[in-house]
Specification:
4-stranded parallel sheet, pyridoxal phosphate, globular, two-stranded antiparallel ribbon, Rossmann fold, 8 helices, 199 residues, alpha/beta
Length: 199
Amino acid sequence: MHALSELETTFRSLVTDGDFERELAGILKDYVERLTEHYLRENGEGPLIYLKREDLNHTGAHKINNAVAQALLAKRELSLRRELVNTVLLQPPVVLALVCSVLIYMGAQDMERQELNVFRMRLLGAELRGVHSGTATLKDPTSEAIRDWVTNDETTHYILGSVAGPHPYPMMVRDFHAVIGKETRRQALEKWGGKPDVL
């Protein structure tokens, strides 16, 4: 599929593009509120366990790292007019509604269960399409989103939030979330003078 090969070429060129990395780092710092801190888990005896608090990011989850990066990639390099996603989860679509114009496919049952979040997404400008076919949960909106994407691949970027789907998506999600590990390494060196024993 042409869209996938174009996406891979674009992604590979961006991972070495200093301007893209600086713009993304600025967004992650100023908007997402990166760098997330480590907190010592109070567990009495035994090893010291520190928790990297991704839940303290703006929107309350790590998903924003990938969402912002993919939205920036599509906006800067692919010149696409639409971003679309399928979801059953709360955070990814809310994140996307924050960072770009997005069409969200969501199971009708999930829309009922997540009524407040649906309201939030619409308030942020997202267009939601309820999927009533099949079980009206995750599988069916995924199928609808992919159908939409392959029909409109010249104007649409499909954002996948998990390490799943066709290449290059798993690689992109992995690399865009690598900010967490890179921060952890840098923080450990600054705070404790070395890398953690176990990560």
